[in-house]
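User: Structure tokens for both sequences below?

Assistant:
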Amino acid sequence: MTLQAMTSSAQQVRVELRQAALQMLCQCDPDTKAQAVQRLYEAWQEGATRVDPQPDLEVEHAIPGRPDKPELVSPLLLERRSMRTAEGRAVLIHALAHIEFNAINLALDAIWRFVDMPEQYYADWLKIAAEEALHFSMLQAHLQSLGYQYGDFTGHDSLWEMVAKTSDDVLARMALVPRTLEARGLDASPPLRAKLAQAGDLKAAAILDILLRDEIGHVAIGNYWYGWLCEERGLEPISTYAKLTTQYEAPKLRGPFNFPARRAAGFSEAELALLEHSSR
């Protein structure tokens, strides 16, 4: 299926969303992937895309599709530079771009992998994929303005490792990717923005404002579907979350926490109280 077919008008054959998401997940070139995802979202909005939630899809290529660079290393071995230099700021922007590229992949994986979910679930995750693609493109453009490219520095694979761990259960995926790993971005964003602004990179600071705004919505979607699945399965959300973090060896959450952003993203007051207690 070509990109042109994926973005065809509603008068032509309607593209099946989950199959298209799987094909895009296998795409290795980051810029091509980002552009294709945004066009698929536009096609969905135009009614040129349909979703079939039932069939198990066959994977014919390695997932996720990635470029040869960046080299993936342990988080402890990631490159660090002084924020006073353009290279130091580029290292941070590159790290953010790497997170957003992986976030495109995780959203596409959430679309194709899990069957028999309501149509709104697939629409929500396509919206997330398109916004993550826009984030990546903005960060890539800013990185290029600093004289660098995505792939010039190292990256780590922690986000995708949890995606792989939770490939067997959509409940675990909603609990431990958007509600855990992506929610950590809500906490990390304000101090990173402050560092970039202090270093004089106001363009990067403005991009982080957009990322934080959109990521609140992404975590909210994860919270919604986690709650929906718990209700469907007759599970109590807080105790179930605790069990899943142990079962899947999720990273322990550490403060400081961005409580206003987490509240806006739909975390309950009971959950926030537990976080506040853990950070004392």
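Moving on to the next sequence.
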Amino acid sequence: MTSAPPAIAFTGSPLDRADHLRADPDALAGQMNWRARLLKLDGLTPGMDDRGALAWGTLADCDPDAELVFLGLMEGKPCFAPVPAEGAEGPAYAQPQVWQAINLLSEQDLATYGGARSLVDWHARHRFCARCGAATEIAKGGWQRDCPSCDAQHFPRTDPVTIMLVEHEGKLLLGRQPKFPPRTYSALAGFVEPGESIEEAVAREVKEEAGVSVRDVRYVASQPWPFPSQLMIGCHAHAIDPALTIDETELEDARWFTRAELEEARAAGPDGTETLVFPRSVAIAHHLVTWWLEHDS
């Protein structure tokens, strides 16, 4: 197979992260002026203007007690986001207002929102030191938290997750979890564990969830996923044997789908076919399966 998938949701932010400003407290303070833009958030839900774009205000719109995170520079203007009182509650699919906004935002707005959401959500959930329990303070423009009690430094977390297409004789292995909408199947996925390479994580997860051993694991593409802070690492592998042994604590079902079945489900749109709903376009699984369909093995 050849090139990677096209632009993937939550990638392509227009922000210049301006690390040189983060690391200089005086320079960063100088950015908090009348030119600064404030990303409007209702908790973790994006504010939107009447054009369906992200809503921006000024620092005067911010609660004076809120912590501010420096997102970077956009068109030369400093951009900030407020840390909410509380972090995310529940899984991503249980947040309908957020998903409604995601379906309306442009690619660049979606990338800006995704990065901001992950960052401010991390701050809201990490206000106390993991070493000594004391209250921490925002540092480096929001890209760090410091503990004044024990001098520990804490950094925004990103959790690596492998998500993989497994192929055998022209078919793809897809699975579904009980929480998925009816007939929706997706690529198998799982967190990379300490001491594992990406290739080892792919092999372990596929074996654990579907009982299938794989070979020739290779990287395809990645996606930041801000629910709350995963990095989805898209891979492709070949099955050594197609026999399935499904771990029902992880999957409700797993099946081998033919190219024709997948093409038909993609063409059918959001409602899918009688047996399969294609992964939604905001997810990397959609792009991975599309990539596989459009390129020869």
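User: Anything stand out in the second?

Assistant: The radius of gyration is 21 Å.
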